[in-house]
Amino acid sequence: MTRRRILLLVAAGACVGIAVLAALLARDASRWQTAFRTGDVEAADAGLGARPSWDARETVPFGAARRLLAVDDDLAFRRAVALFRRAHTAIPSFNGGLAGTALRVQAEAALAHAIRSDGDRSRASVAANLLGVLAVADATSPGQSGTPIERSIFEFEDAIHLESSNEQAKANLELVYQLKAPPNSLRGEARRRGRSHSGASATSPGHGY
Amino acid sequence: MRRLVIPLSDLGALARPARRTLIVRALLTAGLLAALVAVYVGSHETKKGGNLLPSGRSSVVAIDMSWSVSYGQYREIERALRDLAGSGRRIGLILFSDVAYEALPPGTPAAELRPYLRFFEKRGTPNPWADAFAGGTRIWTALDLARRMLKRDRIGNGSVVLISDLADAPNDRAQLAQTLVSDARDAVPVKIVALDPTPEDAQLFRGALAHGGGSVTTVQPPSNETRVSRASPAFPLALVVAVAALALLLGVNEHALGSLRWARGREA
Questions:
Q1: What range defines the domain where residue A57 resides?
Q2: CA-CA distance, B68 to B113, in Å (whole number)?
Q3: Which end of chain A is more exposed for a tag (fewer CB within 10 A), N or C?
Q4: Which residue of B has its CA nearest to A75?
């Protein structure tokens, strides 16, 4: 066997290997598409017990398809929102109980990571708004050694800075200000008369609430 | 420039040995590459100090000094400290219970942990901080102090290693969440070495760190309490084997596949 033939055989083998790898990657990419669709449907389930996984069960190791598709931030956001839905209930006994507080810790950590890692500012803004909502729950939940409600104000303002058209964050910020400073207080009066630059006016000029 | 070659009339007869040589060369190359990778991984693992410290980061180690840990899990803490002390890295140290105390600032050589080992050699050894700590566990105080220490010393790639049984006060969870959110914001990963935690506590922290903020490694106490193995600097067996394999393969390569050389015979 000549050296040229050996080289050709090696090259042919490499090409076959690359082709197999590409086919497996294509299959994994298709699985991710299905996983997102299935996970989103599961997440839309109104039941609190819904735990969508968004798991694609890739064939190629080291999450190659996931890295190529760059879906980590999409996954982080979806998982954080799913955790938020489980952690945020209107049931005071659940919110103040061990299960409720544990879920809130996990949801807040997941949302903070989503805010930091998401390149999409509008999605990061949504996550910051949800984090603010959980911070309000932390500050008002019975049995918890209090965290200041200013933390939620910071999160809502962050959400508005990230996306100036986030109306929900603006509304939430105003509600927290109402909660914190009643209109007959000194601060509430200043705000009512427009002497205080705060609330939804923290947004860019021309984007107030 | 053309290479000088010796013309052969029976090249075909050498085809089989040439093919065999090619295969041996390919196998040797693969073996050498594998040995090189093993040497790299082996040396990397040895430097990390028993995998406790995240590689490439400046770490602050926070040790839970609450009664349940310092009394019940003292052996695991001693082992972890000894491992860290032999890592050759630079660290900061926090001792905490219901309050957190900065024992060593970030950037201190890890060998400075050795004087602390004596407090964990026997069950219930008195330590200077016993009166200051009330006995409860507030993990958020340690995580908060660690982050502030890293920020104060302007350490950009910092991390926190928390050694605790994770028996945190349930009514501090709002503050714990706030601290974890701040850690996530400042990109400070938290690596937890959990000493025989309850499944609920382990699950809480595992869930909170599952999204890229760190990891939880659970350490169970040894089943036989009477057998105490003194932790000593581990002999890097894997590294030595990998280096020996590398040397052997290089020797085989030189011996069997080196270029054919001959010298002019000595003239009488």
A1: 1-70
A2: 21
A3: N
A4: B211
